[in-house]
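F.,

This is the one I mentioned.
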């Protein structure tokens, strides 16, 4: 069952989502050549705690960090460590925050300039597909309408949505129903209603959609070694329309 949130609950989710968005906006200036992913994660954890909030990824199913930081062919769930960021890379940072029992979730792909035209196009199309998916998160539509909007846009540009991973409901827990794939036929799945809150997150590969999980048990990597991009917003359905909550 997909949980519906009251207006009061959506307000509390929006509060924690703004913290999430502010942290991603703040970390942008630090994503530069030479910084380690561990240092980025440490800053994110510090900033979350400064807001009297909790990094919701830390310890979730044993995950050892506060943010997921994935580079180039790492799609998602990259564990921060000593690896240093290099120019030309795409750095994906996914942040989850919990405060007062409510959760926010967002992700951004940061380019470490200069990047190649191909990587820039991948990043831009992935971001555009997030917008296309969000537009379909309207009362009366079906969950797969979101999925189809993402897939249609990216495949037209020669890219592939990852099929092994999905977006999801969020709000009272890190992950809730429904699952929201980034591919599929329109008009399928549960009907979208007011009070639903989704984490919509296109994960788009430059090459094949096939991925595998690294030996660390977390990091998801493209099968062909080509880069991937990832953007995510938490979105509530309010008065029949999508409202992005993870904005500053």
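My design for it:
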């Amino acid at each position: 069952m997909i949980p519906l949130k009251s207006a009061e609950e959506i307000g509390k989710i929006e509060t924690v989502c703004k913290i999430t968005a502010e942290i991603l906006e703040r970390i942008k200036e630090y994503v530069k050549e030479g910084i380690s992913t561990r240092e980025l994660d440490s800053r994110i954890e510090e900033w979350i705690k400064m807001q009297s909030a909790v990094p919701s990824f830390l310890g979730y199913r044993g995950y050892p960090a506060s943010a997921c930081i994935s580079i180039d062919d790492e799609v998602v769930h990259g564990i921060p460590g000593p690896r240093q960021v290099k120019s030309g890379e795409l750095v994906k940072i996914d942040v989850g925050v919990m405060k007062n029992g409510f959760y926010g979730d967002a992700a951004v792909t940061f380019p470490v300039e200069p990047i190649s035209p191909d990587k820039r196009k991948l990043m831009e199309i992935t971001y555009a597909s997030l917008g296309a998916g969000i537009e379909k998160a309207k009362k009366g539509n079906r969950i797969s309408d979101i999925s189809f909007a993402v897939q249609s846009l990216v495949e037209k540009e020669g890219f592939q949505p990852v099929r092994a991973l999905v977006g999801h409901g969020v709000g009272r827990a890190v992950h809730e129903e429904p699952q929201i794939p980034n591919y599929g036929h329109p008009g399928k799945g549960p009907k979208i209603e007011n009070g639903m809150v989704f984490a919509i997150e296109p994960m788009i590969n430059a090459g094949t959609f096939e991925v595998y999980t690294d030996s660390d048990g977390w990091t998801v990597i493209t099968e062909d070694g080509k880069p991937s991009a990832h953007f995510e917003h938490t979105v509530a359905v309010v008065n029949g329309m999508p409202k992005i909550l993870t904005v500053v």
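The longest helix spans residues 7-27.

Talk soon.
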